[in-house]
Prior knowledge:
This protein has one domain. The chain has a three-stranded parallel sheet with strand order 2-1-3. 76% of the residues lie in helices and 6% in strands. The chain has 174 residues and is mainly α. 8% of the residues are buried.
Amino acid sequence: MKKLLATLVFTCLFFISGNVAAQNTIKLGHIDSRAVFAAMPESDTAQKQIEREAQAMQTTLEEIQVEFNKKYEDYVKLANDPNSSQLILRTKEEELQTLQQRMETFRQQAEQSIAQKRTELFQPIQDKAIKAVNDVAAENGFTYIFDTAGGMIVYTAPESQDILPLVKAKLGLK
């Protein structure tokens, strides 16, 4: 009976000390991923490239709009002329509809292209940042790293360490 009681006490103490030890090994950290991306020069380069492409697409869209406006003015002049042929007016209306559809199609394709380019350019940057966070977490024994940029964390305990300086150092950033 004494052996059983001693074993039970020892087992309880083992689990309690194990839980206390496990609780002591949890190390929390947090980081604002937006600050990491903002500090990475690759982000600026990628953003500028996207802005250049978006501007080129906007210029093309404006050119199509100018063409549409000119054709619309021609159509209005013809529509106000009592001697205009209905066939010519219908043809001009069809041209305007086609041009308007072309504009809308171009706009949609431009948005898709920019979104694809954004993913293409920012994915490697994001992967690099995530790798740096993972490396810092592993090197410093963190159990969890929370991203405060998402707005989901409403409280950060004083024990939680901001690892932004460590990640910036890992990436060679100031």
